[in-house]
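Dear support,

We are seeing what looks like truncated structure output for some complexes. This example has four components. We would appreciate it if you could run it in full and send us the complete token output so we can diff it against ours.
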Amino acid sequence: MSNENAVLTTPRTKPGGLIKSAEKLVASYPRVPITVDCVIFGFDENELKVLLIRSDLEIFKGQWSLLGDFAADNEELDDAAYRVLCERTGMTDVYLEQVRTFSKPGRHPGGRVLTVAYCSLLNIEQHKLGKMDNELHWHTVKNIKEMAFDHKEIMDFSYNWLQKRIMEHPLGFNLLPEKFSLRELQNLYEAILDVKLDRRNFRKKFFSMDFLIDTGEYEDDVPHRPGRLYQFNFEKYEQNKRRWTGIDF
Amino acid sequence: MSNENAVLTTPRTKPGGLIKSAEKLVASYPRVPITVDCVIFGFDENELKVLLIRSDLEIFKGQWSLLGDFAADNEELDDAAYRVLCERTGMTDVYLEQVRTFSKPGRHPGGRVLTVAYCSLLNIEQHKLGKMDNELHWHTVKNIKEMAFDHKEIMDFSYNWLQKRIMEHPLGFNLLPEKFSLRELQNLYEAILDVKLDRRNFRKKFFSMDFLIDTGEYEDDVPHRPGRLYQFNFEKYEQNKRRWTGIDF
DNA sequence: TTATTATTGTGTTATTTTTACACGATTGCT
DNA sequence: AGCAATCGTGTAAAAATAACACAATAATAA
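Here is the complete output from our reference environment:
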């Protein structure tokens, strides 16, 4: 199976010639509207939540959509996503990571629009919904049935991404208060991964990693014996994180 | 730390009003040129290679760049990447996956251009360079020092992505001929992961997964005792792939 | 104050997985 | 015939994971 018959269907330069003006080249490219969409996760009442806004398009009336905006002129997409996040949640210092670009033609009723999806994890307690934000609402991820645009697909992809990511990177702590009990941490993992975990083994696992700082403090708002509160030691993690995990598929 | 003072800086609709025309909305968005860039990996002489082309921009004279093209009107990006791949390699049925979008302002000398990076893995034997393709060349990944645009950054990111991905998904087989010896497979993993592996444990590992089909055939072009040839059982893999791998970071 | 309820905190054993390690068999080459 | 290179194989020690139960503590209700 060789490629004897292969043909370059778009030779882009005359043989030997070099393109002098990069500007002219770029000017000849088609242009596309770009948006960013943030999948903002929170954790409350032992459920994984996502922050959605009521769609402002007539065609999607009554449906919910991710928080997004178009990318401004010359704006890096990471910055655009962060901007959306700050504008909508009033929070800064929030975890944010690019997940994937979605480009299916027809994904936007107004014509071709590319969107770059970002995942964000924040502590839902710190995000008091503004009084004026009655268009914003935290939804339980597993209950969401339909959304505007292709946002359900983006959500599903992002949730999947989160499940994988949380097993190999300590993202989850961003969903909890700075100080948390091990029960809260376990609830978080169980909710995201949708599994039941053995409590003793879970504790053993996290203690043996040795990235938890014992604050010496205890929960004080629970109707039973309070648990110890811990913090995650991000600095230590950065210095000691695993390098090689075996082949396994 | 509440957000009492948070302000929505870009209220996008008049309160209560719904946008009737999605087209008009989209028409108001800034537009950006989009390209796709393919990081095409191959494996030869026990080294991981990448297919590069001499840059056709005067400003990058003598430098190498990834294979890319702009996204045509209304073209899905996956299709655009696949198109680039087919045009440049003359091959079809090639493994291709989106990796990341790069948007740093200034990444292209001709002005703002977004690019979506794709990784592709193919069997280098099947890609005989066309006679006219003296602008194309397979480079050893670890020897590459600089590239045109931000392509070195894209390469590094993609190589990193590959190292992680190959440990949890059977991509690697796309780099080998359909039938391969275990030595070849091990060389591949060693080259990509840049580690030395124990031969007996490596074999045990792969046999215990039970996704290799023994063809009953043997190598016939080696100057020593020939090894058995195997194929990867993709169907069986798809049915049996792992679900849960423990928390580990 | 006492009993009840809910959850915390803790250790051991069995099982599985991973690692480390060496030698006789086979083929091509000279 | 002998050399060089690699193939193919098994076992034992070490590490990681999984399964499993009970006493201690605090809040609440009687």
